[in-house]
Description:
This protein has 18 helices and 19 strands. It has helices at residues 18-31, 36-54, 69-83, 101-112, 145-156, 202-205, 233-236, 265-277, 289-292, 314-319, 333-343, 353-361, 375-382, 386-391, 393-404, 440-453, 458-476, 486-498, and strands spanning 14-16, 61-65, 89-92, 117-119, 129-133, 161-164, 186-190, 193-194, 208-212, 228-231, 254-258, 282-287, 303-306, 322-325, 349-351, 369-371, 407-410, 416-418, 426-428. The chain is α/β, with parallel strands linked by helices. It folds into two domains: 12-226, YjeF N-terminal domain (Rossmann fold); 235-497, Ribokinase (UDP-N-acetylmuramoyl-L-alanine:D-glutamate ligase, 3-Layer(aba) Sandwich), CATH 3.40.1190.20. It has a twelve-stranded mixed sheet, with helices on both faces. It has a seven-stranded parallel sheet with strand order 4-3-2-5-6-7-9, with helices on one face. It starts with 13 loop residues before the first strand and ends in a 5-residue tail after the last helix. It is elongated, with a radius of gyration of 25 Å. The structure holds ligand LP7C6HRI and potassium ion (K). Ligand LP7C6HRI binds at residues 21, 25, 39-40, 43, 66-73, 135-141, 143, 147, 164-165, 190-191. Residues 21, 25, 39-40, 43, 66-73, 135-141, 143, 147, 164-165, 190-191 line the site of ligand LP7C6HRI. Keywords: ATP-binding, Isomerase, Lyase, Metal-binding, Multifunctional enzyme, NAD, NADP, Nucleotide-binding, Potassium. Residues 232-500 form the YjeF C-terminal domain. Homotetramer. It catalyses: (6S)-NADPHX + ADP = AMP + phosphate + NADPH + H(+); (6S)-NADHX + ADP = AMP + phosphate + NADH + H(+); (6R)-NADPHX = (6S)-NADPHX; (6R)-NADHX = (6S)-NADHX. Belongs to the NnrE/AIBP family. Belongs to the NnrD/CARKD family.
Amino acid sequence: MAHRIPERDRLPHALYRAEQVRALDRVAIEVHGIPGRTLMERAGRAIYRLIRERWPHARRPVVLAGIGNNGGDGYVVARLALEDGLSVRVLQLGDLDRLRDDAAATHADYCSAGGLVEPFRGEPLEADLVVDALLGTGLERPVEGLWAEAIEAVNAQRAPVVAVDIPSGLHSDTGLIMGVAVRATATLSFIGLKQGLFVGDGPDHRGDCRFDALEIPASVYAHERLSMRRIDWLQQGAMLPPRPRTAHKGDCGHVLIVGGAPGMSGAARLAGEAALRSGAGLVTIATHPEHARWLNLTRPELMVAAVETADDLTPLIERAHVVAVGPGLGRSDWGLGLWHGISGTRLPLVVDADALNALASDPMTRGDWILTPHPGEAARLLGTTGAEIQSDRLAAVRTIQRRYGGTAVLKGAGTLIQGDSQRPPAVCSDGNPGMATAGSGDVLTGVLAALVGQGLDTETAAAAGVSLHAAAGDKAAAAGERGLVAGDIVAALRGVANRVEVS
Ligand SMILES: NC(=O)C1=CN([C@@H]2O[C@H](COP(=O)(O)OP(=O)(O)OC[C@H]3O[C@@H](n4cnc5c(N)ncnc54)[C@H](O)[C@@H]3O)[C@@H](O)[C@H]2O)[C@H](O)CC1
Ligand SMILES: [K+]
């Protein structure tokens, strides 16, 4: 069985922007009468509990404290450490006179308990654990000067770093680095999990992500519509339709893969096997005559058809439930001809790679397709640059969905999914950098097509398929991310698909 994640460590699926969390904060305080000071105390205690659980031998923690409530949380942590007899030091940034209300109170409590506060002067940090309480959701401009030096000092030392609420310097909403950002070993976020931890540079800076609702009533969350959904295989695995005991291969979908120009047959081959390993009953690969006869030598369960023109696809389309077009399709007349033969079919489509490039050159809109661009293909679909896409991935995936219809999947660290329902965009928190390897996208294409072929609508299939693909990539990465090849992801699909733990 996949390792069971302890209930308390399972992150929520609701993600919020900073101003939404502040609204939740206000409801907790003003409607439910929970004092802000109590929330701050709970926040500090949650951080301190995490520290004692994960690093029970830490004796010389350093707390870097800012001048807002994030810093206020840090003073609670420092006082608890002091009361526990740890040799805690607080290095403070900004003007202490600017500490207000709750943060001024927790600072005073720390000092009353005998704690000392020293101004950070740019010196290297001497600690066996660092608490980053500099900046939280109140980050409002790029970090500069001594604040930037403090973050660089945190990143330059080797002790574990615990980020309070969000790594300082990381934007709570976009996940972009504002000048410089803390690379945390662990982040504990409060009340509402910030979407910035999962998009942009968030995955690279959050470390092991934890969450604590600070005991606010569940009814508080009715006041804010989540801004994004976090998805993972633990949650999405439940979407796979059960396989009837009486199933025969026709019941589990017939996937048609169209692709594999000369020299790129491997892409179609990977997509085909990925579809089989994701539960498709039948898979046919329509590919170039040059290599059709031996494409299934190493996987005889795949059917292969040599196709020259779109007309050759007609009998294949008649037998299929879903078509995945694009893996290794190339940009020759052969590939373009097949794309035009497919794009008008009534079957649901998964469109990837060079089929996306063909679509970008000759745009059309459909409701029942899944588009799976990486940032470069997304740039061509939107007539912009890859850097532009990466600078605001959320806007990009929304625009692709609005312009082309169906469900858009923007691949990359924290793959984004935007369907045409009113649901907020989803971000997959499974996956790892080892998956950035040749053929990984072809495997995803096969997985998505298989799930559509098994009866999932395109939007549901996109979320489940992206999560399955990412979780298989994580399983494959257990042997190391470096050197992970797409075939390793294929090899992991069956095990992950059949051992989901329904959350
Ligand atoms: N509901 C909750 O999630 C709770 C949050 N808590 C903690 O409160 C912070 C948010 O506190 P806030 O005072 O609004 O903002 P910060 O602490 O992030 O401080 C911002 C502070 O710093 C100045 N500032 C902003 N940007 C910069 C910069 N680039 N360089 C220097 N200084 C900067 C700005 O002027 C502000 O004064 C939240 O993250 C939680 O940690 C509650 O304690 C518990 C409930
Ligand atoms: K922080």
